[in-house]
Amino acid sequence: MKFKNRRAMLWHFLKGNKRFFVLSILFSGLVSLLDLINPKIIGFTVDSVIGTEETALSPYLESLILQIGGLPYLKQHIFSIALVVLFVAFLAALCRFLFRLFNSMAAEKLIKRMRDLLYEHIIYLPFSWHNQNQTGDIIQRCTSDVEVIKNFFAEHLTNLLRVVLLIVLAVYFMSGIHVGLTVLSAAFIPVIVGYSFLFHHRIGESFRKVDIMEGQLSAVAQENLTGVRVVRAFGREAYEKDRFEEMNQKYMNTWIHLMKLLSAFWASGDLIGGLQVMLVVAVGAVLTIRGAITTGEYIAFVSYNAMLTWPVRMLGRVISEMSKAGISIDRIAYILNSPVEEDPEEPVNAPLDQDICFDHVSFSYGGESPEVLKDISFTIKAGSTVGILGGTGSGKSTLMYLLDRLYNIEPDEGKITIGGVDIAQMDRRYLREHIGMVLQEPYLFSGTVADNIAITQESTEMAEVRAAAKIAALDEAIGKFGKGYETYVGERGVTLSGGQKQRVAIAQMLIRKPEIMIFDDSLSAVDAETDAKIRKALGERTDQATVILIAHRITTLMKADNIIVLDHGRIAESGTHEELLSRNGFYRRIYDLQSPEEA
Ligand SMILES: Nc1ncnc2c1ncn2[C@@H]1O[C@H](COP(=O)(O)OP(=O)(O)O)[C@@H](O)[C@H]1O
Ligand SMILES: [Mg+2]
Known about the structure:
By secondary structure, the protein is of the alpha/beta class. It is 64% helix and 10% strand. The strands form 3 sheets. A 6-stranded mixed beta sheet has the order 6-9-10-3-11-12, with helices on both faces. A 4-stranded antiparallel beta sheet has the order 2-1-4-5, covered by helices on one side. A two-stranded antiparallel sheet has the order 7-8. Helix 8 packs antiparallel against helix 12 and helix 11 runs antiparallel to helix 12. Adenosine-5'-diphosphate binds at residues 131, 365, 369, 372, 390, 392-398.
């Protein structure tokens, strides 16, 4: 989906979740209101219950007090007022609890929804998108930026509403006591908010610097931990230690600088706040002595004033943080607005056990990269085995990515058909399910060996896993692991060698029994003997899959029905092993180089 603007996107995130936010805002409003009641009660108590002033009360309260026995009763039972204060405090606590509860529910639901939406989108983004974007950056957007948006809603927005309500109500109550004194107190509000806003706005830059340095520091640490073998092997420990220490020192200095600024801010903020409180206390006292306000009113006023100090100081920071959320929203919008892979509306999912035809295919990775494939045409007969030979960078892998539609061929740059149907007309999922590709650099997920072999299949019998592993010449190696097929591989488990990984990937593909099997340099890391063993086992399979064998070792593909020699994105020659040898060209040269005795 595509979002028209920031608001549309935020609205989408909030879906199914708004009532929690509304409830949390409602209860936070109630908290502010209840907090403001107690100073009023205390003021009334001081003036009319302890003292003898007349306090104007609402008619409802007046009749309530009369019903229980009027002021004389209250004078004798002052503790009943204390109970009311306690009750109000209890109500406020309850509302605060409900506010926190609904607020965190809303926040957590929001952040979960955001993560789900992002992840789902990212997983469907085309291969080319992932090539252009750094993994670390994507992760940063999915964690830090998501967190910023969560805080925008859950912390800042509710805080803003709560504090504004608190200020409005407090100023209203205060002005009911003495307008002049209220003006004096309120005059400080814009000053304090403005000061704190400006400060936090400026310091945001320093915080960003600290964030970046933290990222760099952990990058150095991570690089060294991952590459610990290289560090040891080359005796680079001291060098790496110094490099880390230097960065760590810089990081610390930046923090200290930041803390100095922060301390100065809080101290000066205290000073302004203190000045305001002092003025209100002093001027209020004068007004009380002159009889302009009562003692109770004075106490209530001072309480209200004190209640405002902290929230007002927070307000500037909240506004500054909110103004920065836009950047994070844009960073997330960048991901969500990137188009995912689209399938044709009416796909033609023709059977794939047919001839594969590359028809004048040219391809470039876009951007500044040159043309990688140039006018490639050839046909692979259904059920045959074709070998593709070529130097590194000649475009072998690219050819296979195109067949699997990991990248798209531009409309006027030729096409690939299977059984006469253009693969661009097929569903990608369908195509990829039926084409098995063993990638040049296989990737294993953390899990057992058996899990990894059966990865694409939900319910696989152990016998099938074993059968596939046998063909991939892996069964024996697995037997030597402590727990056999239940051995853990991946980051926390046994580290497999390159050749073993390739064989797991081969088994992984075999188990799916695809119509088309691609081995992209999949035997490069296994020794010649194992290579031969695997090829023999593959040849003995009864199903008639079309096999594409990419290799740089001639022995791997010399028995293929047809061999295509790629050179710098062009087909240099093609034919059977014998034909190519007799042609005395590129193939012959490589053959002579690769000590044919090996075969
Ligand atoms: N994602 C990519 N973006 C840009 N260029 C690429 C990309 N992948 C490969 N290439 C370039 O395309 C050419 C062919 O690469 P590839 O198909 O992997 O060759 P081979 O598999 O034959 O070694 C190389 O020059 C390589 O640098
Ligand atoms: Mg390759």
